[in-house]
Amino acid sequence: MIALEDVTFRYDDTRVLDGLSLSIPDGEFCLLVGPNGSGKTTLVRHLNALLTPDSGTVTVDGAEVTERPVVARTTVGMVFQHPRDQFVAATVGADVAFGPENLGLDREEIDCRVDEALSAVGLADRVDDRLDSLSGGEQARAAIAGALAMDPDYLVLDEPLAGLDWPARESVLDHLSGLHDEGTGLLVVTHDLRDLHERAERVVGLDGGQVVLDEPPETALDEVQALGVRDPRC
Question: Which tens digits make up the pLDDT trace of 56-84?
């Protein structure tokens, strides 16, 4: 379980998270919504110690994230809004291998993880391709593969569908559904609930750095417009 307890965080004099508490059970598919500046990206960056709270605690499976950041980063995979922000190598295979290599795994295990991760996102035949030769949708899937190669229990994705055309969007959605079916917990930050609300189990809304909505999708959709999020049924 991921748990945030009374978390406060400031950028300079601006309080972005304001005594926020939230728990995310194992294997849940949760959507995180809210207006710009509500604290969504700040929140998820606390889950693997990319940010440290000014007060409060963040734990993953009972371990405090700031005390065991390596454990947190292997348990919680992170996929940023712009895939290029997390690429560290020139080719698909080398980039996906980077995380496992830094865990000190042997070559056989690294190669196995790379093969499995790329197969999971439909890029098994692109291992030697340059990342800058991929389409936007393929780059999104390559970023997901890089996170999957760490064998995380939870996968956090910040606007994974932004800017994708329909075929790429459908491909990413299908792969997310498959990961959820296999037991991976998913936390998706999004402004666009289309096609996601039907797959998710929970919608959490932020405003002013606090949780203001926490309901199943079928009831949450009646309230999301107040958070600047379009009701996908309209």
Answer: 999 999 999 999 998 898 899 999 888 88
Three-class DSSP category at 171: helix
How many angstroms separate the CA atoms of 205 and 223, rounded? 9
Q: Domain residue spans in the chain?
A: 2-227
**pLDDT for 126 beyond 90:** yes
Which residue is it, tokens 């809304």? Answer: 205
Say what the pTM is. Answer: 0.89
Fold of 2-227: Rossmann fold (3.40.50)
Structure-token match 């292997």, residue found: 74
Q: Which of 188, 102, 98 is nearest to 140 (CA)?
A: 188
pLDDT at 53 over 90: yes
Place of tokens 């950028």: 11
Burial class (CB in 10 A: 0-12, 13-18, 19+), 58: buried
**DSSP string of 103-162?**
TT--HHHHHHHHHHHHHHTT-GGGTTSBGGGS-HHHHHHHHHHHHHTT--SEEEEESTTT
Count of other CB atoms within 10 angstroms of residue 207? 17
Q: Using N-to-C axis directions, what is the helix angle for 136-148 and 166-181, rounded to 10°?
A: 20
Highest average pLDDT, of 92-96, 159-163, 170-174, comes from 92-96
Nearest to 24 by CA among 37, 9, 49, 43: 43
